[in-house]
Automatic annotation (TrEMBL):
<feature type="domain" description="tRNA/rRNA methyltransferase SpoU type">
    <location>
        <begin position="20"/>
        <end position="170"/>
    </location>
</feature>
<dbReference type="GO" id="GO:0005829">
    <property type="term" value="C:cytosol"/>
</dbReference>
<keyword id="KW-0808">Transferase</keyword>
<keyword id="KW-0949">S-adenosyl-L-methionine</keyword>
<dbReference type="GO" id="GO:0002128">
    <property type="term" value="P:tRNA nucleoside ribose methylation"/>
</dbReference>
<dbReference type="InterPro" id="IPR004384">
    <property type="entry name" value="RNA_MeTrfase_TrmJ/LasT"/>
</dbReference>
<dbReference type="GO" id="GO:0008173">
    <property type="term" value="F:RNA methyltransferase activity"/>
</dbReference>
<dbReference type="InterPro" id="IPR001537">
    <property type="entry name" value="SpoU_MeTrfase"/>
</dbReference>
<dbReference type="InterPro" id="IPR029028">
    <property type="entry name" value="Alpha/beta_knot_MTases"/>
</dbReference>
<dbReference type="Pfam" id="PF00588">
    <property type="entry name" value="SpoU_methylase"/>
</dbReference>
<dbReference type="InterPro" id="IPR029026">
    <property type="entry name" value="tRNA_m1G_MTases_N"/>
</dbReference>
<comment type="similarity">
    <text>Belongs to the class IV-like SAM-binding methyltransferase superfamily. RNA methyltransferase TrmH family.</text>
</comment>
<protein>
    <submittedName>
        <fullName>rRNA methyltransferase</fullName>
    </submittedName>
</protein>
<dbReference type="GO" id="GO:0003723">
    <property type="term" value="F:RNA binding"/>
</dbReference>
<keyword id="KW-0489">Methyltransferase</keyword>
Length: 260
C-alpha cells in the first residue's frame, strides 16, 4: 500500500506494495480482527474479504484488531473470489492438502524470498486463506500459482486464521530485516576489556591466596586457570567487573575504589 504519490507508507517497512491477504468466507469478526493485528505486526496492510459471514464492517473485528486500524479501515469486501484477485499478478494459496494438484509447494520460509523477489519487480501478489472450517477448495487451488504448506505435526496441522496469517507474515517480515539471531544488550555499559578481566583475576587470586583457599600449593595454577575460565565464559561487562571487585573487597571488610 502506498500514499497518493506512490510512496511506501511507514507501516509496511518501506515496501510500496507488500503482499495482499485474502480471506475467503471468514466467519467471526473476532478472527478477522486478530488476523488484521497479525498482518500489521508484519508490515502487511492490504486485507481483502470475500463474503464475510457476519457482514462488514464488524465491531468485533475492530476490537480484536487491537489498534491495527489501518488494516481494518481499508479492508475491501468482494462477492466473487475472482474479483478479489483480479488485479494481482500472482496468487499463493495456503493449504495442508494439495488435493493432487500439480503445483509448486512452498513452506512459509521458502515463500518469503519468492514474495520479496516478485514484489521487487513491481508485481502485485496475494496470499489466499480458505474458510476456517473447510479450508480452500479445488477452485481456489486452481486459480493459484503455487501452494503454501506449513510443516507441522502430521497428526495435527490445524491452525486458526490469525495463526496462519501470522506464520506467513512473520517469514515475509524476517526476510526483509537484518537482525542478528543473538545479541547482548549492554544498556549504558560496554564489554569488559582484557585489561579489566586481568585486573579482576589478579585481585581475586590474591584474595583467595590470602584467605587460604589454595590449600595445596601444587594445585594452585590449575585452580586459578579454572576460575579464569569460569569468568571468561560469562561475557562480563565493564560494570559487572567493577561490581565483582567491589564484592571481593566488601567480603574482606575493606573499601573499594573503581580505579584500584
Amino acid at each position: 500500500m502506498s500514499d497518493a504519490r506512490g510512496a511506501a507508507i511507514p507501516e509496511t517497512g518501506g515496501i510500496a506494495n507488500p503482499p495482499v491477504i485474502i480471506l475467503i468466507e471468514p466467519q467471526l469478526g473476532d478472527n478477522i480482527g486478530k488476523a488484521a493485528r497479525a498482518m500489521l505486526n508484519c508490515g502487511l496492510v492490504d486485507l481483502r474479504l470475500v463474503r464475510p459471514r457476519d457482514g462488514w464492517p464488524n465491531e468485533r473485528a475492530t476490537a480484536n484488531a487491537a489498534g491495527a486500524d489501518i488494516v481494518i479501515d481499508n479492508a475491501k469486501v468482494f462477492e466473487r473470489d475472482e474479483d478479489a484477485v483480479a488485479d494481482l499478478n500472482r496468487v499463493y494459496v495456503t493449504t495442508a492438502r494439495t488435493r493432487d494438484a500439480i503445483k509448486p509447494v512452498f513452506t512459509p520460509k521458502g515463500l518469503a524470498p519468492e514474495l520479496r523477489s516478485v514484489v521487487a519487480k513491481g508485481e502485485k501478489v496475494g496470499v489466499l486463506f480458505g474458510p476456517e472450517r473447510t479450508g480452500v477448495r479445488n477452485e481456489h487451488i486452481a486459480m493459484a500459482d503455487a501452494v503454501v504448506t506449513v510443516p507441522l505435526n502430521p497428526g495435527f496441522t490445524s491452525l486458526n486464521l490469525a495463526q496462519a496469517v501470522l506464520l506467513i507474515g512473520y517469514e515475509w517480515w524476517q526476510a526483509g530485516v537484518d537482525v542478528p539471531d543473538y545479541q547482548m544488550l549492554m544498556n549504558d555499559t560496554f564489554p569488559a576489556t582484557k585489561e579489566d578481566l586481568e585486573r579482576l583475576f589478579v585481585h581475586l587470586e590474591h584474595e583467595l591466596y590470602e584467605s587460604g583457599f589454595y590449600r595445596v600449593e601444587a594445585k594452585r595454577p590449575n585452580m586459578a586457570r579454572n576460575i579464569r575460565n569460569i569468568f571468561n565464559r560469562s561475557n562480563l561487562t565493564h560494570q559487572e567487573v567493577q561490581t565483582l571487585r567491589g564484592m571481593i573487597v566488601a567480603m574482606r571488610g575493606g573499601k573499594y575504589k573503581p580505579e584500584d
